[in-house]
Structure formats: C-alpha cells, structure tokens
Write a structure and sequence with these properties.
mainly alpha, Four Helix Bundle (Hemerythrin (Met), subunit A), 5 helices, 0% strand, globular
C-alpha cells in the first residue's frame, strides 16, 4: 500500500488550505495501517473517518470561499467535485458504522486517488487566481433568482 506524505509540491499557495491538506494527508497516513488489518479496529477506523469527514467539511468550505473570492471561473465544477467527494467520505464512514468494512486496498486506493490526485490536479487549477488577483474573472455570477453569489 502506498504511503501518503505531504510534500511542498502539494502546496496551493494558501497557508490555510495547505494546513488543511496536511491534516487530510495525516488522516490518510493514520488510516493506512488500520485498514491493512481491520480486525478489532473498527472504532479506530470510525474515529479516523470521522476526523477526515470533519476536516473535509471545513476545508471544502474554506477553499470554496477563497477561490470564489479570487475570481476562479470554474468554481461551480470544483464545488460539484467537493460535494461528490464529501458523499464518498460520508458513505465510507456510514458503512463502517454499520459494520460494513470496505476492502482495505480498495478503500486506500479510493481515498488516495481522490484526495491526493484532487490536490495535485484540480486544486492546482485555481492557484493562479489566488496568487494573482488581477486574473479575477470579470463576470459576476448570479443565482437563478438573480442575486449574486
């Protein structure tokens, strides 16, 4: 199983968001040994998944606020990814709470691919907007009722 480590290459240029990403990576590191041998470790796994769920909620909210404020034009698609990813974490936690432990390799691959590839791929797309406010989108986004976001 691949060990997840935080590296400076994962930085998105925001100290707050980088700290959140580090906490998420730490959860994955803690989850790795637990899912390698789940026997009698259900409570520990639940605890880590609960912490991961909490971090993800806080992180997604902060990240969405920052990239919207920076004028990132593809923020809606990014938020949709966050919503789907939260559903995955919540579903995994719910499965474990109901005694359904996922296969270790599948769980680790899912979380690793999802979280690390998201940080290294999708999150990098908004970096220029955080780094350079002059790139802000000129368009003002409006809700269906006409009010701005």
């Amino acid at each position: 199983m691949q060990v997840v480590e935080w590296t400076p290459a994962m930085s998105v240029g925001s100290e707050i968001l980088d700290d959140h990403h580090k906490m998420i990576v730490d959860c994955l590191k803690r989850l790795g040994p637990l899912i390698a041998d789940t026997t009698g470790r259900e409570d520990e796994i639940k605890g880590v998944l609960s912490k991961l769920e909490e971090f993800v909620l806080v992180h997604f909210s902060e990240e969405e606020q920052q990239f919207r404020a920076a004028g990132y034009p593809d923020w809606r698609a990014h938020k949709d990814l966050h919503d789907r990813m939260y559903d995955v974490v919540f579903g995994l936690k719910s499965d474990v709470e109901h005694g359904r432990l996922p296969e270790a390799a599948k769980l680790h691959e899912l979380l690793y691919d999802w979280l690390i590839k998201h940080i290294m791929g999708e999150d990098r797309k908004y970096m220029p907007y955080l780094e350079n406010p002059d790139l802000q989108a000129k368009q003002v986004w409006h809700r269906a009722n006409g009010r701005p976001y």
